[in-house]
UniProtKB/TrEMBL annotation:
SMART domains (UniProt xref): WD40
Keyword check for Kinase: no
Stated family: Belongs to the WD repeat CDC20/Fizzy family.
Organism in which the protein naturally occurs: Heracleum sosnowskyi
WD repeats by residue range: 154-195, 236-277, 366-399
This protein's pathway: Protein modification; protein ubiquitination
GO CC annotation terms, alphabetical: anaphase-promoting complex
GO biological processes: anaphase-promoting complex-dependent catabolic process; cell division; positive regulation of anaphase-promoting complex-dependent catabolic process
Protein name per its UniProtKB record: Cell cycle switch protein CCS52a
Matching PROSITE patterns: WD_REPEATS_1, WD_REPEATS_2, WD_REPEATS_REGION
CDC20/Fizzy WD40 domain residues: 109-397
Keyword presence, Cell cycle: yes
Keywords: Cell cycle, Cell division, Mitosis, Repeat, WD repeat
Length: 423
């Protein structure tokens, strides 16, 4: 039999049949006597490695010792021909097209009265594609499908909006006020359901976990409310000054808080004492985001005296890495569609950065806001972000690719020129 390392001849010369590959031998589905895939001049381990790499790529499972490497391959041509094509570079892997990032926003909304306040959280985007923004003493919603703008509430001249937050279903909206109140609104009915008391000063941070609502205040406290109960469930004490941000993990088991005392605390639902504390930041922490891709991975950003994004493993209570961004970090948000995150910045750049995790290579810099970018939210399909600033504009950016499981497109994803006033 004539046999070389690049050509294998089988007496059953059929165009297609199943074969089974082992780590060091080839067995066709019909028996061929005196048949071997290797000649004496080629080391078996080296040739087996070339075959695995050609067929399955460099990420294929490794084989050590006498472990059996076994896959069933359905081919449209003889295996030796397929191997020759791969090894000689005839068959090339498809090249993914390069991703492009926008140089300008796809939409700009005027938002007169949007405060330049580092300690407020005035923008959120619901799972029902409803954008909410707090302007002065009023709250407005905008339907992403119909572009309809609705004035949800007016707190009056003696109070103002400090924070807004949708629940997971996108039906109930929490509004934190300067007087220390938390109002719950049914957005579809434009009806206030109830008012929650307990804080002594303004409520600038809100976060939902099912029927539980967490609120953080300038009085340094965090209140846990069960919206079905009459009073708050518990009070969390740890921060020595204002609570700037609250974020529940994606499984609703852990609550992260950042404060004006430069501290980060991680809490669970079973204790009023923090389970973890991080003190490495040297300025107020307003930016916090839980990774949707890695359990326990938390990102945080520090203010103008810090300028750093830090990453934490909350399961091992360890500090992973620190990136100096060169400017005040105002907000962080993680993409659900790809393993990337967005940071928005204040002094002195006022720009938006897109990062790839875990290399933290900078993918894009988005510019346009005239003042620090204090507000950030993401669309329900995970493709578009909205940023807000004290320049009284909301800007929409098509940043992330579509999720693999859906191809829906919101109205905000369509490129539109010009401005639309939000009220």
């Amino acid at each position: 039999m004539n046999l070389t390392t690049s050509n294998v001849v089988c007496p059953y010369n059929k165009p297609s049949y199943s074969r089974t590959i082992y780590s060091d031998r080839f067995i066709p589905s019909r028996t061929c006597s005196n048949f071997s895939l290797f000649n004496l001049s080629t080391p078996k381990s080296d040739y087996a490695t070339r075959i695995r790499t050609a067929l399955f790529g460099p990420e294929s499972p490794s084989v050590t010792g006498q472990n059996i490497f076994k896959f069933k391959i359905e081919t449209k041509q003889p295996l030796h021909s397929l191997l020759d094509d791969h090894l000689n570079g005839v068959i090339e892997s498809p090249v993914k097209p390069l991703r492009t990032f926008p140089k300008s926003p796809c939409k700009i909304l005027d938002a007169p009265g949007l405060e330049d306040d580092f300690y407020s959280n005035l923008v959120d985007w619901s799972s029902q594609n409803i954008l909410v923004v707090g302007l002065g003493n009023c709250v407005y919603t905008r339907n992403g499908f119909t572009s309809k703008v609705t004035k949800l509430c007016d707190l009056g001249e003696n109070d103002s909006v400090c924070s807004v937050g949708w629940d997971a279903c996108g039906t109930n909206l929490a509004v934190g006020t300067r007087k220390g109140k938390v109002q719950i609104w049914d957005a579809s009915q434009c009806k206030r359901i109830r008012t929650l008391d307990g804080h002594e000063k303004r409520v600038g941070a809100l976060a939902w976990a099912k029927s539980q609502l967490s609120s953080g205040s300038n009085d340094g406290s965090i209140l846990q409310h069960d919206v079905r109960a009459e009073n708050h469930v518990s009070k969390l004490r740890g921060h020595k000054s204002e609570v700037c941000v609250l974020k529940w993990s994606h499984n609703d088991r852990e609550l992260a808080s950042g404060g004006n005392d430069n501290r980060i605390y991680v809490w669970n639902q079973h204790s009023t004492q923090p389970v973890t504390k991080y003190c490495e930041h040297t300025a107020a922490v307003k930016a916090i985001a839980w990774s949707p891709h890695l359990y326990g991975l938390l990102a945080s950003g520090g203010g103008s005296a810090d300028k750093c994004i830090r990453f934490w493993n909350t399961t091992t209570n360890s500090h992973l890495r620190c990136i100096n961004t060169g400017s005040q970090v105002c907000n962080l948000i993680w993409s659900r569609n790809v393993n990337e995150l967005v940071s928005t910045h204040g002094y002195h750049e006022n720009h938006i950065l897109v990062w790839r995790y875990s290399t933290m290579s900078k993918l894009a810099t988005l510019e346009g806001h005239k003042t620090r970018v204090l507000y950030l939210a993401i669309s329900p399909d995970g493709k578009t972000i909205v940023t807000g600033a004290g320049d009284e504009t909301l800007r929409f950016w098509n940043v992330f690719p579509s999720p693999k499981s859906q191809n829906t497109q919101t109205e905000f994803g369509v490129s539109v020129s010009g401005r639309t006033q939000i009220r």
